[in-house]
């Protein structure tokens, strides 16, 4: 998994790339809102070993009806970018793109473990991935990052706006996927409206706080990273 030759290597280059790509995000449904009953929904996630300069990405494809895994793929490579808050996509995307490319079927929508428009420059991992691939994407994060929200009501399905304190803009929603359990933070990625992103997240989380897409991808990328360390796999 070679890192692309033109991939940003400095903070200034990465910031400039985010500013270039941000106007390309389509923050609305492109075509039917909710995924069709027969849709294939992918989850992507990443695990790191900074000491060994390794990153492992997983892409797991689920059947929309049954939430069963129908295909999965991993990619292991070198970490593409230093850790800088707000620029995590530049660490993760080369591996994520390789894992998605290894799937034999194209997902109808991709769920990212992270942010989309809920990002200081409105280009989190989900939006960045969507613009690069043209796929419909959304982000489901575990924390609200730098944004404000009120706690949703206790019942499953309750939600409240996630807002930018500087502008008051709604950048996502805090969504209760399990009654009485802390919410997740859903935002538009690309070619997906916020209402659709929230409904899709709830459909993918019938039993647990996190969507099944994220749960499967998280487990798979951690196993791939552990296998790479155990076997002494080195990145290209």
Q: In summary, what is this structure?
A:
The chain is 27% helix and 24% strand.
Describe this structure in words.
- This protein has 236 residues and is α+β, with helices and mostly antiparallel strands.
- Helix content is 27%, strand content 24%.
- It has helices at 11-21, 89-101, 125-133, 194-204, 212-231, and strands spanning 40-49, 54-63, 69-78, 109-112, 137-141, 159-163, 170-175, 184-190.
- Strands 3-2-1-4-5-8-7-6 form an eight-stranded mixed beta sheet, with helices on both faces.
- Helix 3 links the parallel strand 4 and strand 5 (137-141).
- The protein is globular and about 50 Å long.
- The N and C termini lie close together (6 Å).
- The model has no long low-confidence stretch (mean pLDDT 94).
Total E-strand runs: 8
In whole angstroms, the N-to-C terminal distance is 6 Å
Strands in their spatial order, largest beta sheet: 3-2-1-4-5-8-7-6
Main β-sheet: number of strands, strand sense, barrel status? 8 strands, mixed
If you average the pLDDT, what whole number results? 94
Query: H/E series, N to C?
Result: HEEEHEHEEEEHH
Low-pLDDT windows of residues: none
Per DSSP, the total helix count is 5
Shape: globular
What is the topological layout?
Blueprint: H1 11-21, E1 40-49, E2 54-63, E3 69-78, H2 89-101, E4 109-112, H3 125-133, E5 137-141, E6 159-163, E7 170-175, E8 184-190, H4 194-204, H5 212-231
Parallel strand pairs: 1-4, 4-5
Antiparallel strand pairs: 1-2, 2-3, 5-8, 6-7, 7-8
Helix pairs in contact: 2-3
Task: Quickly list its features.
alpha+beta, 24% strand, 236 residues, 8-stranded mixed beta sheet
């Amino acid at each position: 998994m070679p890192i692309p030759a033109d991939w940003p290597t400095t903070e200034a280059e990465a910031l400039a790339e985010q500013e270039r790509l941000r106007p390309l995000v389509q923050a609305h449904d492109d075509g039917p809102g909710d995924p069709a009953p027969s849709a294939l929904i992918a989850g992507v996630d990443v695990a790191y070993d900074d000491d060994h300069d390794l990153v492992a990405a997983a892409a797991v494809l689920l059947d929309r009806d049954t939430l069963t895994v129908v295909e999965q793929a991993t990619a292991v490579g070198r970490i593409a970018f230093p850790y800088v808050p707000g620029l995590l996509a530049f660490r993760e995307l080369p591996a994520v793109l390789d894992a998605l490319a290894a799937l034999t079927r194209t997902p109808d929508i991709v769920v990212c473990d992270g942010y989309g428009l809920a990002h200081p420059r409105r280009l989190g991992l989900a939006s960045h991935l969507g613009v690069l691939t043209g796929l419909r994407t959304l982000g489901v994060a575990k924390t609200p990052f730098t944004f404000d929200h009120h706690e949703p009501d206790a019942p499953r399905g309750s939600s409240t706006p996630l807002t930018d304190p500087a502008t008051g803009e709604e950048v996502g929603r805090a969504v209760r996927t399990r009654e009485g359990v802390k919410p997740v933070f859903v935002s538009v990625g690309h070619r997906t409206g916020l209402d659709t992103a929230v409904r899709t997240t709830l459909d993918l989380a019938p039993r647990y706080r996190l969507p099944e897409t994220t749960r499967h991808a998280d487990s798979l990328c951690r196993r791939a990273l552990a296998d790479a360390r155990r076997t002494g796999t080195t990145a290209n």
